[in-house]
Amino acid sequence: MSEKLTKLVDELSTLSVLEAADLVKMLEEKWGVSAAAPVAMMAGGPSAAAEPVEEKTEFDVVIKDPGAKKIDVIKVIRQLTSLGLGEAKTLAETAGGKVLTAVGKDAAADAKKKLDEAGANVVIE
To answer: Which pLDDT does position 53 carry in this prediction?
Structure first.
């Protein structure tokens, strides 16, 4: 730090709180700025400056377990997809198998509801 700045810091350190507040007001008026905005941002913490997270628009419907009524689950899978009987059966028996991929939120929720009603354990990812 330069000697000039060191002297300035030493001088400012001798000010009372009221004098420091008056100094801030005087500098704001002279320079046409406000010290309030940077203070408010600092009070918000680092998360205040973080970019908003984009909301997910595409979802996968993943079967975790077909449950006890596997035949009903296979029927629902066939309704939701264009799979044949053998492919739907294989998908129903495959833990982590994606019944639907990259579908909208409403379609994923509807498919999950139908598969849940058929007895399957399903998650939306």
So the answer is: 67
Instruction: Determine the 3-state secondary structure of 26 from DSSP.
Output: helix
- Total domains, the chain: 2
Average confidence (pLDDT) over 42-51: 54
Distance (Å, rounded) from C-alpha 61 to C-alpha 39?
Answer: 46
Side-chain half-sphere of 79: how many Cα atoms within 13 Å? 13
Could you tell me if 61 and 108 are in contact, meaning their C-beta atoms sit under 8 angstroms apart? yes
In a domain, 54, yes or no: no
Locate 3 and state its tokens: 């000697």
Write out pLDDT tens, residues 98-118.
888 888 888 888 888 888 888
3-state secondary structure of 95: coil
How far apart are alpha carbons 52 and 7 in whole angstroms?
Answer: 43
103 three-state secondary structure: strand
For residues 74 and 86, the answer to whether their CB atoms sit within 8 Å is: no
Tell me: do 64 and 117 sit in the same domain. yes
Which whole-number Å values give the CA distances from 105 to 61, 92, 120, in the listed order?
10, 22, 19
Q: Which residues constitute the domain of residue 109?
A: 59-124
